[in-house]
């Protein structure tokens, strides 16, 4: 399950930069409303000087990480599950 949220738009002389937050989760029969989620921040840079049919530059970063992924890299769902597992382990240490 995922939810996309528009975060920001910034403009410079030569480009427009769009930022989106994609909130991912994996509901299960035991937890139809997941208690852990993963945020992925997607950045789109659209040139204002190139023709409109030119491709935009898209990159994304997983929450808590600094590595910037690009579209020429193969996306691996395992990356999402690793963050979900990490957050689940942390969440289980909390006592309410």
Notes on the protein architecture:
The chain has one helix spanning 77-92; strands at 2-11, 15-24, 38-47, 57-62, 69-70. The chain has 96 residues and is an alpha+beta fold. The protein has a 5-stranded antiparallel β-sheet with strand order 1-2-3-4-5. One of its GO terms (cellular component) is cAMP-dependent protein kinase complex. InterPro entries: AKAP, AKAP_28. One of its GO terms (molecular function) is protein kinase A regulatory subunit binding.
What does the secondary structure layout of this molecule look like, with pairings?
Layout: E1 2-11, E2 15-24, E3 38-47, E4 57-62, E5 69-70, H1 77-92
Antiparallel strand pairs: 1-2, 2-3, 3-4, 4-5
User: Distance between the terminal alpha carbons, to the nearest Å?
Assistant: 26 Å
Helicity, as a percent range:
10-25%
Which of globular, elongated, flat, extended, rod-shaped describes the shape?
elongated
Sheet bearing the most strands, described? 5 strands, antiparallel
Order of helices and strands: EEEEEH
Average pLDDT, all residues: 93
Radius of gyration: 17 Å
Number of strands: 5
Organism: Ooceraea biroi (Clonal raider ant)
GO molecular function, one term: protein kinase A regulatory subunit binding
Protein name: A-kinase anchor protein
Pfam family, one: AKAP28
């Amino acid at each position: 399950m995922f939810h996309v949220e528009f975060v920001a738009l910034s403009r410079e002389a030569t480009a427009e930069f769009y930022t989106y937050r994609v909130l991912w989760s994996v509901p299960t029969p035991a937890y139809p409303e997941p208690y852990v989620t993963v945020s992925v921040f997607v950045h789109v840079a659209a040139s204002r000087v190139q023709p409109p049919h030119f491709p935009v530059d898209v990159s994304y970063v997983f929450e808590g990480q600094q590595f910037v992924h690009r579209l020429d890299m193969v996306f691996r769902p395992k990356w999402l599950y690793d963050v979900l597992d990490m957050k689940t382990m942390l969440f289980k240490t909390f006592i309410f």
